[in-house]
């Protein structure tokens, strides 16, 4: 299990606390420092079953500067969104937890983190 976090994020800290309390075996990725590649973002999107705009923090200053709210949300625009996430990792929703079963969750709630834990087998 890997968790993508921003240490300044309270949701990330909460997810880590829950993982620790449950004795989970996981690896931390500080994705603002160890920025995911476009391929890694595509892989996580596939695992989440989501599109890039679904995991984009559209209220961030970078999103407003890029004008993301006006970008199309369709298959033709998907690569443009992925590229934006790779170039501006602050836009990636967090925390993202990848499970051993090949799935992933956005762990913003205790329920979602427990869901990821349940997928570990």
The CATH architecture assignment turns out to be: 3-Layer(aba) Sandwich
**CATH secondary-structure class:** Alpha Beta
Number of helices: 5
**Alpha-carbon Rg, integer:** 14 Å
- Could you name the ranges where pLDDT drops below 50 across 5 or more consecutive residues? none
What oligomeric arrangement do these chains adopt? single chain
Q: What spatial order of strands do you see in the largest sheet?
A: 2-1-3-4
Total strands: the figure is: 4
Structural class label: alpha+beta
Whole-number mean pLDDT: 96
CATH topology type: Glutaredoxin
From the spread of the alpha carbons, the general shape counts as globular
Task: Look at the structure and name the CATH superfamily.
Answer: Glutaredoxin
What order do the helices and strands follow?
A: EHEHHHEEH
How would a textbook summarize the main sheet? Answer: 4 strands, mixed
Rounded to the nearest angstrom, the distance between the terminal CA atoms is 11 Å
Q: Helicity range of the residues?
A: 25-40%
Q: What is the percentage of strand-forming residues? A: 5-15%
The overall number of domains is: 1
């Amino acid at each position: 299990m890997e968790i993508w976090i921003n240490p300044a994020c309270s949701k990330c800290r909460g997810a880590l606390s829950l993982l620790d309390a449950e004795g989970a075996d996981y690896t931390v990725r500080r994705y603002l420092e160890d920025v995911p590649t476009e391929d890694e973002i595509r892989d996580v999107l596939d695992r989440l079953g989501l599109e890039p705009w679904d995991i984009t923090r559209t209220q961030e200053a970078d999103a407003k500067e890029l004008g993301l709210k006006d970008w199309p949300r369709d298959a033709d625009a998907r690569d443009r969104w992925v590229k934006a996430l790779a170039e501006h990792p602050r836009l990636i929703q967090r925390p993202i937890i990848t499970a051993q079963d090949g799935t992933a969750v956005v762990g913003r709630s205790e329920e979602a983190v427990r869901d990821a834990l349940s997928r570990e087998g």
